[in-house]
Amino acid sequence: MSSFSQWVLVNRFAEITGYSQNAVRHKIKGGVWIEGRIWRKAPDGRIFVNLLEFERWVESSALVKAF
Q1: Reported pTM
Q2: Can you tell me the distance from the alpha carbon of 50 to that of 38, in angstroms, rounded to the nearest whole number?
Q3: What is the DSSP letter of 34?
């Protein structure tokens, strides 16, 4: 069984990526990241971020700037 989860809490996401928790919450609040794709709120109200979709977002931004 794999121990990898694509959905992680904001604090774990910050540890993995180097983004501050404040920066993550700012991207969520500002609508930079799409709810349901890059982030979602669990039934208990905690916010989770999808690591795979985050990587796609990073790569798409690089592609847009390249052209």
Answers
A1: 0.83
A2: 5
A3: P
